[in-house]
Amino acid sequence: MPELKHAGDEPPSPAEKTLFKRYEISYLLGYGAFAKVYYARDAHNKEHVAIKVINKQKIIKGGLTANVKREISIMRQLRHPNIVRLREVLANKKKIYFVLEYARGGELFAKVAKSRFSEHLSRRYFQQLISVVGYCHSRGVFHRDLKLENLLLDEKWKLKVTDFGLSAVTNQIRNDGLLHTVCGTPAYVAPEILLKNGYDGAKVDIWSCGIILFALNSGYLPFNDSNLMVMYRKILTGEFRIPQWTSPELKRLLSRLLDTNPVTRITVDEILKDPWFKIGYEEVEFHHDYLELKDNRSDTSSSTGDELKPYLKAMNAFDIITFSSGYDLSGLFDDREDRERFLSQDSPEKIIETVVAVAEGVGLTVVVKKEWCVKVVGGYKCNFEMVVEVKRLTDELVVVEVRVRESEVETGNRMWKDKVKPGLSGLVYETGPAG
């Protein structure tokens, strides 16, 4: 495999070149203060993926634990053809790994930096962006960091929105109906954020969309100055010049997108009706994911699960498990405890009985046993504690959650990884390959 292509960055250690015996890491795609993104290949199905590697300690020290959990929580819900898909999340003691859809075309920023786009091409990408923004807002998600660097392209040159690390959701809105966290990238930040009086997340995203459309059409940003305070003054007063080659229809739309007054700024619904925007616009069609189908069923108690089978085949285990109401991220930053989840078609009773048999077979002691839960411990050569809990997902599938705490007294095999886990492999339900 090729070495990392970023100068000065160390290649992964041999143990890290294949993550979790599945993802073969090749080279570095990019990096930030808290994460690095690598190109990799799924050894199971040969698909190309991007893996975002997050250093746990840096996140904890930076006070960003809640941001990472929120990003996972948001991305697992979003299913739109113009949003980079989160395939699954993996973790060990030191790092968290986001396995993401790979956008082969790279950043839209790199294309605009070479040359401005035609009005026709600018409109096409803006239409895809607004489709994403409208979709997210309808689900109570506000991106808050939309910029050219966070817009990628796939192999067919279609837009892919990424990086929901600064996103907000409706439950973060205060009693005044506004968000108050100051965030975003300076050149894209809306004037109401600078005023620090609270802001509407939807209106902030629209402002950023206006900055992006302006840049696509002109090849440069509307508000840009080496002096940050001067740039902020221009943003607050709405001081920018639209290039002379811009059509009157686009000029009108840009003036409404970059309206410094959020109350009169154009909305998504109004954008969809705009004459310039509507040219050649085709509403994005995509299938409802399992979560929406599940939530909209009129009688879940009588369902046999047959109507879910086409969706289950199209999703991997992470997709299905994260749609469970019992999914949580509380153990993600707890280094004292390992957590694993898998799907099973076996009955909860059979699963618990299997766990008990395997545990007792390797010398562990059952201390608690209920219908859908069991706790086992061990003290010989290791301090070991394991809780296995079964939760119903559909009439045919259950989620098995395993929580393990283990500290070795002497070197040797790990109890969970080398002795208990192999004995439970027959319970695992294999879904189709992640698509």
From TrEMBL:
The lineage of its organism: Eukaryota, Viridiplantae, Streptophyta, Embryophyta, Tracheophyta. PROSITE patterns: NAF (PS50816), PROTEIN_KINASE_ATP (PS00107), PROTEIN_KINASE_DOM (PS50011), PROTEIN_KINASE_ST (PS00108). Residues 23-277 form the Protein kinase domain. The keyword Nucleotidyltransferase does not apply. SUPFAM superfamilies: Protein kinase-like (PK-like) (SSF56112). SMART domains: S_TKc (SM00220). ATP binds at K52. GO terms for molecular function: ATP binding; protein serine/threonine kinase activity. It is an enzyme of class 2 (transferase). One of its GO terms (biological process) is signal transduction. Residues 310-334 form the NAF domain. This is non-specific serine/threonine protein kinase.
